[in-house]
């Protein structure tokens, strides 16, 4: 386990107490900050603008990110760069088979000097936690993340301990070399707002990587925003306008995955809420205070696909969650504006 926390203390930022009445100026400010953060990350992870923006959308949606790809494609670099671009405390946990749950959440130790038990927080007590190669730890250790990812707190010896806010888990895993690994349970997969694949860079970007690797390290990236700004932007996204037909559209898409003949388990209500939150952030990042169907289409794949369990015969034929999502969009009609209906 590697602790690369920064030196400044943990602080829980004050959240907005009153709902924000969003206007065009709010949307423009949100979009400008979002683009500045994305541009900073782009200087380290070249040629991956779409993945970067999806990851930032998840962060401002107060969700968690699962990065799955072959080794050496930049999964950990993306996670470290996002952490570096946000001026908050971050820590990295290298998951291994011998890692214990207390190594993640913390432990209570008896202090002989004071004659009392004291809680020593683990590395999850940070704003951004990088869980590297999460599928190499045992299920018992993986489960240590379940409560904190969902509720933002850790319970040790019956006592709850709140983690700093905002709180983001960026986990990575490799789909190859599966010997000695433990597949993430569906309950834990459902807690990740998005599952992303970085992929290989295009030729031009890979040439640039070779030319300037030493100049594009996350350690040399200056912070763009602080945790207070991230928290405020996340609160702004909660006030994005969603028209009534779009609510029905979202539910119908989820039902299409649940009723698909090749699906064993469709999208959960948690997944539907996650898509709504992500679409709200995506709309603001485009300078809008309202959601349109295109926002839903842009995010449904990364948000829905990993939550869908295909039937055994469909899995043997190679049917994936992404294909089920595509079928759902083919089946559900797009809602039309009131003037065009």
Automatic annotation (TrEMBL):
Q: Which one of the record's GO molecular function terms can you name?
A: ATP binding
Ranges of residues in domain ATPase AAA-3: 64-194
In this chain the ChlI/MoxR AAA lid domain maps to 256-327
Q: Which Pfam families match?
A: AAA_3, AAA_lid_2
InterPro entries listed in its UniProt record: ATPase_AAA-3, CbbQ/NirQ/NorQ/GpvN, ChlI/MoxR_AAA_lid, P-loop_NTPase
* Signal peptide from the UniProt entry: none
Per UniProt, which keywords does this protein have?
ATP-binding, Nucleotide-binding
Homology family: Belongs to the MoxR family.
Which protein are we looking at?
A: MoxR-like ATPase
Q: Which organism is it from?
A: Glycomyces algeriensis
Q: Which Gene3D superfamilies match?
A: Magnesium chelatase subunit I, C-Terminal domain (1.10.8.80), P-loop containing nucleotide triphosphate hydrolases (3.40.50.300)
Glycosyltransferase recorded as keyword: no
